[in-house]
Amino acid sequence: MQSSKQLKPPVTETYDSLLAPGQSLNSVTAKISDIILFPVLKTPLGWIIGFVAAGLLLMLYLYSLATLFTVGIGIWGINIPVAWGFDIINFVWWIGIGHAGTLISAILLLFRQDWRTSINRAAEAMTIFAVACAGIYPLIHTGRPWLDYWFLPYPSTLGMWPQFRSPLEWDVFAISTYATVSVLFWFVGLVPDLATLRDRSTSPIAKTLYGLASLGWRGAAKHWQRYEVASLLLAGLSTPLVLSVHSIISFDFAVAQLPGWHVTVFPPYFVAGAVYCGFAMVIVLMIPIRRWFGLEGLITMKHFDVMSKVMLASGMIVTYGYFGEIFYAWYSSSIYEYYLIVNRFTGPYAWSYWSLILFNVLIPQVLWSKKLRQNLPVLFFVSMAINVGMWFERWVIIVLSLHRDFLPSSWASYTPTFYDWSTYIGSFGLFFVLFLLFIRFIPMIAIFEVRDLVHKTTAHTAEHEDSGHAGA
Amino acid sequence: MSKAMSKAATDSPATYGIMAEFTESSALIHAAEHLRDAGYTKVEAYTPIPVHGLDVAIGHKPSRLPWLVLAGGLTGSSGLFAFMTWVNLVDYPMNIGGRPHFSWPAFVPITFEGMVLFSALAAVFGLFLICGFPRPYHPVFNAPGFERATTDGFFLCIETSDPLYDAAKAKSILTGLGATAVNEFSE
Q1: Do the chains contact at B110 and A173, CB–CB below 8 Å?
Q2: DSSP letter at B163?
Q3: Over 80: is that where the pLDDT of B9 sits?
Q4: Which partner for A337 in A135, A288, A329, A343 could form a disulfide, CB atoms 3.0-4.6 Å apart?
Q5: How far apart are CA A398 and CA A354, in angstroms?
Q6: Among A160, A221, A215, which residue's Cα sits nearest to residue A190?
Q7: How far apart are alpha carbons A267 and A301 in whole angstroms?
């Protein structure tokens, strides 16, 4: 980073291993912590430019929210019958992105997949920031967001309680639990790395701050033993949690009786879509980051290959869901379900349905080719296409189902306004401001887990060593 | 800090223990087993990575954290389920299309989320509690070269509170077990 004026040396790619050859405990620790541990005033120009750009988007977001709070949700394009628009599309889109981070950190930990090691920290950070972006939409779409505490069960002077039998109330518990557990899991994973930074930093301010944040971690055997137990338990809790969160979000739709929503396949279909989009976002973020910070030795082509395969598999499940919806329309013999599909194929928003098929079904088929999976520009393009495609999927589910339901007299159309777009594009400002702060001050790769991986792959096979370690 | 304290105190701070550094985790495990078999009880290892088998080699008991997490999960799930039942049956019964007040399947999602939330809180804060965190200062940080314990150094410490503690003897044992450096350090 610091020598950005010089041309970067050509990259030697590693294809068949999770680490470039010749790494030691010290070299990986130095490599990752040196990205962070230099004076604030020497922050690279590229980071500052990115931060300013993200900050401007954040300003746009705050402006949109301020207008929303002072004027009301009339500034958006929603109306009856399309009462959910960009707000809920973006909410589902962002939280779906978040799910890949939990999947990588929790489910792959339980399955002892070593390839998660170099990417889990950044993916978990992505989860937390995406959940922050997601969580704002349901709060602001209520129209009177200052009364959002009514969602919570508290002994109110109104003498009322929330409706615990409603999926919308389940959402409150699901998302707040998900956000809390994701932050806790992430912080627990950070503690040993913050201790590494405390011990390596030379600046007294950095030493103090990392020292406080690391809680006094000193790598004691007793602490490691409990730490691994806690990590495994948190992974075991997060795994059903992540499945439940997107299932509950799909109940918001599936419990309603609207054609296009009232489908029992929604929970698994939503979860697969979340994984699909989330892995695409991890790839979109990791391709530039590994280049900028020279992390080719730690995030190898093998990582991208495995992530592409997960993406392809979840994409096929989503595609199966698309065919399933067409089948149900025919098999149900319901004219409303049948018309839903006709409307998707040929109605006024048919362009969005066919875009969805193009971005989510057709373009990702290139991932069958190993050569193209390992071609980073192609992979970046495919991942971007999937992100756009998954946004269209939520658009199709929400807008196309709402705008023409049972009675033709109640049909109407939906056109997003400037504020719909600015509240969406502005949320990227919040995401990237947080993400840039993260890569500047917190190790973006879990250092102790990479050390563990180095130790496992290079250590002599001593009698006490075994293959499985739990990290966070 | 040290200057002011050494002026105020009449004598230098007490010795906390003796710290040995190893370059390999296998040597550390071997040394820990040797000390345990020799009867040392106040021994602790400090490593940059989780080393499997080290807790057994030192003689640490298995963690009781899972029981704490189980208690948290049971509290969260049963508490929320009971609360929703009370609200819907006693405090605020609402007739929605003639459905039963005790429509327990609708309580399942929130019961589940409550279980996860309270278990996770118990796991994280239970971990901090039984590790004694936050504790930014600890005497072992005074051991020479201890900053490597979070990079690539494998350390083993015998504390002075151990009944068998004898600096000279410990030093010869630890050097014999392959330690690259052995130093006494103070609190």
Answers
A1: yes
A2: T
A3: no
A4: A329
A5: 16
A6: A215
A7: 32
Residue-wise DSSP of A220-248:
BHHHHHHHHHHHHHHHHHHHHHHHHHHHH
**DSSP E strand boundaries for B104-160:** 154-159
ipTM comes to 0.90
Give the chain A residue nearest B148 (alpha carbons): A199
B26 with A216: Cβ contact below 8 A? no
For B37-79, how does the pLDDT look when each residue is reduced to its tens digit (9 = 90+)? 988 999 999 999 999 889 899 989 898 999 999 999 999 999 9
Domains located in chain A, CATH noted: 25-153+162-455 (1.20.1630.10)
Rg (CA), chain A: 23
Cα torsion through A263, A268, A273, A274, rounded to 10: 120
CA distance B121 to B71: 11
pLDDT digits (tens, 9 = 90+) for A395-441: 999 999 999 989 999 999 999 999 999 999 999 999 999 999 999 99
Could you write out the DSSP letters of every residue in A253-279?
HHTS-STTT--TTHHHHHHHHHHHHHH
Residue A371 to residues A26, A308, A322, Cα–Cα distance (Å): 34, 12, 28
Q: Is A200 on the interface with B (CB under 8 A)?
A: yes
Cβ-Cβ contacts under 8 Å, B49 against chain A: 25, 448, 451-452, 455, 469
State how far the Cα of A242 lies from the Cα of A123, in Å rounded to an integer.
Answer: 14
The answer to whether A329 and A284 are in contact (CB under 8 A) is: no
Looking at beta carbons, which residues of chain B come within 8 Å of A462?
24-26, 29
Cα–Cα dist A414/A108, whole Å:
41
**Domains of chain B by range and CATH?**
14-62+140-186 (3.30.70), 65-131 (no CATH)
How far is it, in rounded angstroms, from Cα A276 to Cα A357? 14
Which distant-in-sequence residues (6+ apart) come within 8 Å of A105 by Cβ?
A116, A120, A123, A124, A127, A185, A186, A189, A235, A238, A472
B50–A173: do the CB atoms touch at under 8 Å? no
Cβ-Cβ pairs closer than 8 A, A with B, add up to 212
A154 inside 8 A of chain B by CB: no
Tell whether A224 lies on the interface with B, counting CB pairs under 8 A: yes
